[in-house]
Automatic annotation (TrEMBL):
This is ABC-2 type transport system ATP-binding protein. GO terms for molecular function: ATP binding. It comes from the Bacteria. Residues 10-238 form the ABC transporter domain. It comes from Paenibacillus lactis. The keyword ATP-binding applies. The keyword Cell membrane does not apply.
Length: 313
């Protein structure tokens, strides 16, 4: 969900990273707004991690700039970085200390973080019952949530996470997804997350930015059709397949994709607004319809199409 504030929290403007004669990242541009979760996707070597490292100032940009709440990472790093919370590698803590004491250590290095804020964030990430236990007893998922709590303490405007679900089991991945969506919703924080789990990104993100060989391939809201994808593909299960095919063939703009006689299934492609007309014509022809199923491309299908079949990593 894009927040009501239309000013971007993060603007990546023509960012380029050149090593030798090769552009690892090449003129990359995109924005992120309040309250939305944006996935950064790309195949092996696409430049995802390099992009994230430039955003947070860990490596220098060759050209371009990154603005965080209007502050330049290149020209005003201290003010820009104050608005960023992030986990770029696995979060590291003192294992012999409790989660609470680890957060208190971070509090001492940050201005304006109160005990009240610590407990608010502990509740937000669901660590109330474990916060006073030693971190050595934490599961990987609990450590990840503690890392997110630490990254949120100073009230950042954007949270940047590089592979936050690495090593988590399915329950931990679902838990992480739920907490990130809750953080975006309740705190209004923008979240940029890279991951190789396409199915998870599809459930978590409101939008994806896809890069390949350092360049922007596409920027797309999840489930949004492309310019050339105005037609819907539907399968109808009917009692009289032959009559259904004859009736459907009389409709303008409808294309028969195929049929499965044994199942009484007819698959066609047509404009979404024409689906009610098709159903009405079939009913008028006394064709009984048991099911109408629309086929939607998964994020994995779309990713493979965008990148020409390259595998993600």
């Amino acid at each position: 969900m894009v927040g009501t504030n239309t000013t971007p929290v993060l603007s990546v403007n023509g960012v380029t990273k050149t090593i030798g004669r090769r552009n690892i990242v090449d003129g990359l541009t995109f924005d992120i707004h309040h309250g939305e979760i944006v996935g950064l996707l790309g195949p092996n070597g696409a430049g995802k991690t390099t992009t994230i490292r430039m955003i947070v100032g860990l490596i220098e940009m060759s050209r371009g700039d990154v603005l965080v709440q209007g502050h330049s990472i290149k020209g005003d790093f201290v003010k820009a970085i104050r608005h960023i919370g992030g986990i770029i590698e696995n979060p590291e803590f003192y294992p012999y200390m409790s989660g609470y004491d680890n957060l208190r250590q971070y509090q001492r290095m940050s201005d304006g973080v109160s005990i009240t804020r610590i407990m608010e964030i502990v509740k937000l990430v669901g660590l109330q019952d474990a916060i006073h236990k030693k971190v050595r007893a934490y599961s990987l998922g609990m450590r990840q949530r503690l890392g997110i709590a630490q990254a949120l303490l100073h009230n950042p405007s954007i949270l940047i996470l590089d592979e936050p679900t690495n090593g988590l089991d399915p329950a931990g991945i679902r838990e992480m997804r739920d907490y990130l969506k809750r953080i975006a919703r309740e705190e209004g924080i923008a979240i940029l997350v890279s991951s190789h789990l396409l199915s998870e990104m599809e459930l978590m993100c409101s939008r994806v930015v896809v890069i390949q060989e350092g360049k922007l391939v596409t920027e797309r809201a999840i489930g949004q059709a492309g310019e050339n994808e105005e037609l819907s593909t539907v399968t109808l299960r009917v009692n009289d397949l032959e009559l259904a095919e004859q009736t459907a063939s009389r409709l303008d703009g409808l294309t028969r994709i195929g049929s499965i006689p044994d199942e009484g299934a007819l698959t066609v492609r047509l404009k979404e607004e024409d689906i009610p007309d098709l159903i009405s014509e079939l009913c008028n022809a006394r064709v009984r319809i048991y099911r109408v199923e629309e086929h939607k491309s998964s994020l994995e299908d779309e990713f493979l199409k965008w990148t020409g079949g390259n595998r993600i990593a």
